[in-house]
Structures are given as C-alpha cells and as structure tokens.
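Field: COMPLEX_INPUT
Field: COMPONENT_COUNT = two
Field: RESIDUE_TOTAL = 753
Field: MODE = joint
Values follow.
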Amino acid sequence: MFYLKSVGAVAGLGKPDDGRASSLIRTMLVWCPDWPVVASGVPGPVAVMHANKVVACSPQARSEGVKRGLKKRDAQARCPELSIVDYDPGRDMRVFEPVVAAVEELAAGVAVLRPGVCAFSAKGPARYYKSEAAAAERIVEHIAIECEVEAQIGIADGAFAALLAARAGQLIAPGETSRFLAELPISTLERPQLADLLWRLGVRTLGKFATLPPGDVLARFGLDAALAQRLAAGKDDRPLAVRQPPPDLEVEDRFDDPVERVDRAAFAARALAERLHARLAGFGLVCTRLAIVAITAEGQELYRVWRHDGVLTANAIADRTRWQLEGWLTSGRLACGIVALRLLPEGVLAQAGLQPGLWGEAGAEQDRAHRAMHRLQGLLGPESVIIAVEGGGRDPRTRGSQVPWGDERVPDRPAGPWPGQLPPPAPAAILPEPAHLEVLDTHHQLVRVDARLRLSGDPALVVIGQSRLEVVNWAGPWPVDERWWSPAGEGNRVIRLQVVLRDQRAFTLVLSQGRWYLPHDFSEHYR
Amino acid sequence: MQAELAGLVWRASERTDQAFPLLPELTQFFPGQGLRRGTTLAITPGPGALSLLLATLAAASQAGSWCAVAGLPQLGIMAAKELGVVLDRLVLVPYPGAEWTAVTSILLDGFDLVAIAPAGRVAPSVRAQLAARVRQRNGSLIVLSAHGWEGAELTLTTENPVWYGPNHGRGRLRCREITINAKGRGSAGRPRSGTIALPSTCPNGEHTCGKPNRASEPRHLYAVGG
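Field: COMPLEX_OUTPUT
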C-alpha cells in the first residue's frame, strides 16, 4: 500500500486537482472511422477479423447487425454476403501514412496515436484559419481531396476527450471538456475490466467516476485506474508524442541536354554521389541500400536498388551509379538519353549503429582483399565477384548461397531446422545445370519409386548419354516434398538416391516427375 | 652451447612464418610441413581434386588468410565449409572470362591464397609472369589444370578413390579414401604418396562407415572407461 501511495505521489496522482487547467493542451484530433476497413480497400459489407473476432466492420455490415467482438460464424449468419479481411496493423499504418502527410501539410507537430487516428495542437491552425471550426473544416476537406478518405475532427482539452468528441462530431469549447465527458458511459474508457467492475458497483458514467475521491481510487483500483480517472475528469495532460517528419535525403540532377554517353553519365554520377554523401553525413547517417532512378527524355523511368552490407562511401555510391548507367546505356534499355538522375537512400542507419567486426573482419588483410574485389568488379562487372553465405534448405545448392560482393549477406533460404536435409559430407561439385540420365535395374528397366517409397528394382546401371556405368552400391531413397501448398510450379517433390559406380565415382541422383537428374557430383570430374 | 643453438637454428624450409598452415593430414605431402609462401602448387584434375583443393585452403583460412577461387563455378560451398574453409574469407570469381590472367594478378594482390582453373594450355610467358607475381606478393597460387603447370613447386595427383557408407539401400555416403601422390622440385623432389580420408565424417580412427578400422595403427592417446 505504501508503495502504491508513493508511486501516486510521484506521478501527481491520487490527490485532488490543484486547478492546473492551463496545462491541458487544446487538441485537435483527426479520426477516420472504420480505418482497418478503409485500409483493406474491399468494397461492400466487410469485417476485419483478428483471432476469430470482428475488430472492425463497414457501415453496411453494421446495418446488418455485425459489431465488434462478434465471432466469424455469428457475423456471417447476420450478414451472409460479408467479406472477411485479416487484421494487418502494418497495412493499416502504411495506408494511413499519406493521410498523416496530408495533415502535416496544414498543421505542425502531428502525433499518430494509432492507425486511423492522429492528433495535434489546435492552437496554431486555429489562429491561422481564424477559428477552430474553420481550421477543422479546411483539414477535413484537404484530407478528402488528397487521399479520398473520409475523416472527422474533434477538438477538446486533451487527446482522450478529443477522440470522443471526434466520434460524436463535436467541437468542445475550452473549459467545457469535463461537462462533455460527464454524460458519457463508463465503457468509453476502453478498459473493459475496469469498466465492467465500475458498472457493477453502480458507477455508470465518466462524470460519476470522476467524482470519486482520487486517493481511494488509486488505493482500491491501482495506478491504471487512477490515470483513467484523470482522463474521465477531463484532465488529460499527457503531452502528444509528436513524430519527426523524416528528413528529405533524395538528391537529383537534371541535364539540359540528354546524356547518352557513359563517361558523361559517370561524371554526373560522381558529383551526385558526393552530394548525397555530404547530405547523409550532415544527418549523421550512413546508407546501406541505394536506389538509382534515371528518367529519360521520353519519360521512361528506370529503377534499381543496390544493397551493401557495409557502409556505402561516396566512391562506392559513385561506382554503383556508374555501373548501373553503363548497364542501362549498353543493354539498350534506354531508348534515348537521360534527362534526370536521382539517388534515393532507401536503407539508412545512424552512423553509431554500425559496428565493425571485432575479430577477423577488420584489418589490413580485409582492406587488401576488398580493394582487389573492388577492382575485379570494375573489370568484370558487379555480379562477377561472389561471396559465399551459408543458408538453409534441403538442397546443397541453396544451402550455400552465392551473393555478389557488396550486397547484403542474405542467404536464399534462412538457416534453421530443415528436416530432410542430407547430412554431411556435402558434394564438392554442384553442376550448374543438372544433367539428365537414366537409372536402370538388373532387368534393364527404368528404376521407379512407388507411393510407399519402394524402388521398383535395385539400381544396377546408370546411363549418361552414350556411356553405361555399373552401380556397385547405393543408398536411399529419401523423399522431399517441399512447398506442396503453393500453386503449381513452385512445389518441389523429389526422391534422392546416392550411388557409387564401379570406378568409385559417387553421385546424388534426383528423381523428379519421372525423370532422373544428376545435380551433384561427389567425384569431381569437373571438366 | 649446442643445445642453445639448436633452438635458434632451423632449416629454411621449416620456418612456419614463410608457409601457410595445412591440415595435419596433408602435411606429409608438403616439404617443410606447410604450403610455402611465394610458390605455386598444381593439382591435377581427377577424383577428389576439388575436395583436395578445399582441404588445402582450410587451415590457412582458419588462421585468418583470405582465399579466392577463380574459374570454378561448380564449387560446392557447403563442402568448403565442411572441409574447414571459413566462408567469411572465401571469395569466388566463377567466370573470369578471357581476361583470366589479369583477374589472377588482381586476386594475387589482394588474397593470400588464390586458386585458378585456366581453361586450356597456358603460354610459358604467362606462367612466368604469374610466378613472379606470386613471389613478389608472398602469397600462394594453386592451379587446377589438366595440362599441368610447369614450374610448380609441387604437383598433387589423386587416384584410387574408395567410397564407404552406402550398403545396398542402407547407410549413406560417409567417407572416401583416396591416394595422393606428390611430386615436385628441389626439396620436394622425392615423390611422396599416402592415403587419406577426404572427405570424412567419421571421428578420428573410429570408422562407423563400414571401412575397416586399422587396429594396427598405434594410438597415442585414447579414453579409458571408468
């Protein structure tokens, strides 16, 4: 009990209000009704479901009786033509981003409370547009024009009251907030357990809850309830967590006459790279992913992203831009000259966030090797220098991924348990193109595998082209049935067999769709 | 006095700072127990040649050297890892193309150990040029060429592979015994030959793959029960 009281004292809770009404922020709040439904973009009656419960529904569905918290089956019983959409907070936030950007054009210091709801201080817009009502009207109109989204605005003292005001579509005059809140039901606190308890105790409106002695509320219901009581009393003095608009890091160069020669493009790229690097350094950032955009005289736009596992220095940026332009200009993908070149850093890190390796990675040896790799990339092209990355998968080909040097060290398949992987040793030679062959049994019939994984006969002969090779020993078969759930073409259903031939060459053979292939060679006859 | 001197004097070929370390199984084929810096090693393509190449790189790679392999697009990365090559310090140039001599020179500038597989016969002038570059950079060049490599310090050939593990449907590939012949110039002039397991997934001496255990082999250290 002592602990709770002391916490309350620190937070300024549990005490009667000392009349600091002036600390309340006049808050303007933009609320987009049924945001998860709007973000899903599905027309007609829609319900957004999470864990088999309705999270949000469209007005059409609501008119049929669908409401929040309903089970999927109940919702479909009430509204048979209901479309079900999965709840995806990421999608909601992504779609909300343009709305926030539109609000930021008219108001400063916008805080996103959750997808579909953002708030900001009403003082600035109200003064600029002469009145709060005019400002609200202007912002709603701007959102409708920019994003084609219907929004409602509420103004009150504090974000909590402003949200309720937005739902009611009201602008609460200064000082009227506690009176507005007093009439609202206790469930608007959005704390179901507390609301249920208070309801059963006979406290059914926010006003009644607010009149309880604050010290007793803290002692009986805890800290969260004490905070809720301050909200109910219209004393929401939490400051808004204003988001920082991201800095504009893009650099662009426009050419008066279109660039058609590689050397001129490279010269422009170098200057642009220096500018980008200076700008990034100004914000204390470094770039790990760079997008290069070239716009041609005909309005064609070419786009390519480059990744890098370390820091892209000014030189590295310049080189990548030059390679890309060379590639575009020589491959004929550019029908005419380039009129604009743009560099967008897509992945940035704070400079301090990059930690150089402690052992092995750093040092003179690494610098020497990196210089050589850099020169080779200049000579042979960026895809020619490969580093090996260990990944996962059931095929040795995917387990050892080949990543061009400079790209992120990301394997094709993530590491992890891959049941069905063949244990070591791995084959030292992996044929770039699996060769086709035939496996025959002692009666010179093609060896097949039935549904119970029985071979139709013991492998005795392997026929590759014209040569017939005798099998002296074999192991298997081992099945793999990968991605059987995906649509046609992606699934991989194979049988693997290891054979040792008379001349002691060893192979892994793969049976796929009735044909035998030779993907890996343990014997390493490599030319 | 002589005892003191004995600690200070050693044969030039035994200086370890002048050689890259090797896996213990391979040292028997190399004069001076290591891959000498500034020299060229040739491996004749044959059964197990790629595994032998990777095993040669392994110990040096673990000791911190960077390795590059050019002209071998089929090299199995997982096999490299299993044989002990550190993937963080392994770089591949699968298709060096027509300018492979320039590529090799650049690689020798940047890497301690460079393995190349030239497509055809190599002119003596190019060989001499590369040998000079290897000496100058104090690295080591490993050449896989069916035509041999005149001027190589040591040439390794492989023969008589025997696989152990599969047993008519049971088991799996586990071990390969292979005979390696080494022949070279100078101190390596005496031909050496030996049989090693490459690759092997059996713990030392204990063959669970069906290969006969060599009971006669002296074991210096072994665990006793109790």
